[in-house]
Write a structure and sequence with these properties.
Structural class: alpha+beta
CATH topology of the largest domain: Pseudouridine synthase
Order of helices and strands: EEHHEEEEEEHEHEEEEEEHEEH
Distance between the termini: 56 Å
Mean pLDDT: 91
CATH class of the largest domain: Alpha Beta
């Protein structure tokens, strides 16, 4: 895989992320979107943090691609709660607190390290050596259902299905405050916050983002919800619920000053996934039980 400073020159108008990914084929467009957001890309010497930045002919683009570290890709025999597995993909019930792939501060003991061991290295490499097999992700402190893929053919097929919203994902979450509506839809574009680069927020020029929610139970302290994602943006549920004034319980980033009720991270669980297997045409559906931390929280709340 390539690394280091790469210099490109635009020959025609177009989006920054599309241009880079079409000229450096070793990584995916989503990978470069992340580099852009992290300030690793310049246009004519100026740092650009918007993936949709419009290039004009003659623009000089530099991309700082970090060099993967070998210790970030070691296979480690870490137990996995496997819901389904075949030659193409694997569905895991990820515990709260497990990081999905190596990164700053997390060089091992991640889901990727466990997958490399379990799958004996048979994982797609489209996302590079740091994120083999990872076609979508959930945050460290979000628990529940997640998919990984074993070959590039399946990676491309699942990525296309995700982009066409053909994979149905539902979550459970408890949010602060009592939501009076029984159900609702949040349709608001999400982008990175200009005030805190760790956060995502609703911004006018953000990516289209749609979240559907339905009330499961109301408590004096908050509301238990089922949430269905129509799109899959970074921190989408956490950002959208914060936007409507009901941040997720225990969220260390979006609700840091609120009572965490003993939680070690946000109360957000990936409950189920439903999709058509690209190779077999079979409809697959997997659902998990609420984890212990979630059940314990509900037991301690006061029903209305």
């Amino acid at each position: 895989m390539v690394s280091g400073i790469k210099t490109l020159r635009a020959e025609e108008p177009g989006r920054l992320d599309v241009f880079i990914s079409s000229n450096i084929e070793e990584y995916t467009r989503s990978y470069f979107t992340g580099l852009i957001s992290d300030g690793k890309v310049t246009v004519n010497g100026k740092v650009i943090t918007k993936a949709g930045f419009k290039l004009t002919p003659g623009d000089e683009i530099t991309v700082d691609i970090p060099e993967p570290q070998s210790d970030e890709t070691i296979a480690q025999d870490i137990p996995l709660d496997i819901l389904y597995e075949d030659d193409d993909l694997i569905i895991i019930n990820k515990p709260q607190g497990m990081v999905v792939h190596p990164g700053a501060g997390h060089h091992d003991q991640t889901l990727v390290n466990a997958l490399l061991s379990h799958c004996e290295g048979n994982l797609s490499d489209i996302n590079g050596v740091i994120r083999p097999g990872i076609v979508h992700r959930i945050d460290k402190d979000t628990s529940g259902v997640m998919m990984a893929v074993k070959n590039n053919e399946m990676h491309i097929a699942i990525s296309d299905m995700l982009s066409r919203h053909e994979i149905e994902r539902t979550y459970r979450t408890v949010v602060y405050g009592v939501i009076s509506e029984d159900c609702g839809t949040i349709d608001a574009p999400i982008g990175r916050s200009s005030k805190d680069r760790r956060k995502m927020t609703v911004v006018e020029d953000g990516k289209p983002s749609i979240t559907h929610f339905e009330v499961v139970g109301r408590y004096r302290e908050g509301t238990d919800l089922t949430v269905r994602l129509e799109t899959g943006r970074t921190h989408q549920i956490r950002a959208h619920m914060t936007y409507i004034g009901h941040p997720v319980f225990g969220d260390p980033l979006y609700a840091a000053k609120r009572n965490a009720y003993g939680l070690e991270g946000q109360c957000l669980h990936s409950k189920s996934i439903r999709f058509i297997h690209p190779r077999t045409g079979e409809e697959l559906y997997f659902e998990t039980e609420l984890p212990a931390y979630y059940r314990k929280l509900l037991e301690g709340l006061t029903p209305l």
